[in-house]
Design a protein that fits this description.
The chain has 232 residues and is of the alpha/beta class. Strands 1-2-3-4-5-6 form a six-stranded mixed β-sheet, with helices on both faces. Helix 2 links the parallel strand 3 and strand 4. It is rod-shaped.
């Protein structure tokens, strides 16, 4: 028959078990509190890091925006300066071209009657800088040579290009609308220039235009004898 355990020993065992459980619960609570503290510290450090990151990003963005604004301002200044220089250069070129054009015009105008009388036209009058602003047709002709039923519109260029030929053709198309009192006239077109781009003389011939070029101290019509002028 086994020996019985005294009641006091049972109580003591229960008490020790309870104390051990309480100790373990207390340790678990301590560890949980420590974990909560570490989590809170981590959150605080993360919040501080994020705030510092946001601050640095805001500073970097502000600095970048400032640099971009300064760069754009400097760029705009340089563009404005370049445009001003280009405008001055264009104006200088235009002024030079205009002076050359006037120079050529003043050579052609005195010879115009002789030139076209030599083409069998009984022209008797020469006008320079003929302008019309009738309706929507704002047109200027450098030199106009006329008789009772014939008119020759001469455009003078310092340099003759295909674009300037096309411009002359447009002017001839509008001429009788801008100057209706010449509506019944036979209208011819002519171009005069010092410098002529490659093959532009052939282009002018093919369009039915007289071509006036320098010849010695004067000017002459360079079209060949078989040339057939176009009438507008």
């Amino acid at each position: 028959m086994s020996a019985s355990i005294p009641l006091d020993d049972i109580y003591a065992l229960i008490q020790r078990s309870q104390e051990e459980a309480d100790r373990r619960f207390a340790e678990a609570d301590r560890r949980a509190a420590e974990a909560d503290r570490l989590a809170a510290e981590t959150d605080r450090l993360a919040a501080e890091s994020k705030a510092e990151f946001d601050r640095q990003m805001a500073e970097s963005r502000a600095k970048f925006d400032q640099q971009m604004a300064e760069s754009k301002t400097e760029y705009d200044k340089r563009i404005a300066k370049s445009e001003a220089i280009a405008a001055q250069a264009n104006q200088a070129v235009n002024n030079l071209s205009s002076r050359w054009g006037r120079f050529v015009e003043n050579i052609v105008a005195p010879a115009a009657l002789r030139l076209f009388q030599g083409q069998g036209m009984a022209v008797q009058e020469v006008y320079q800088r003929v302008r019309s602003a009738r309706g929507n047709h704002n047109l200027e002709i450098d030199i106009l040579v006329v008789d009772d039923d014939v008119a020759v519109a001469i455009e003078v260029k310092s340099r003759l290009t295909q674009d300037s030929i096309r411009q002359v053709l447009r002017s001839l198309q509008q001429f009788k609308l801008a100057f209706p009192h010449y509506a019944s006239y036979r209208l011819y077109g002519a171009v005069a220039a010092i410098e002529i781009d490659k093959d532009v003389d052939t282009y002018a011939y093919n369009q039915g235009l007289f071509l006036i070029q320098q010849s010695g101290d004067s000017v002459s019509i360079s079209n060949t004898s078989d040339f057939k002028p176009r009438t507008w």
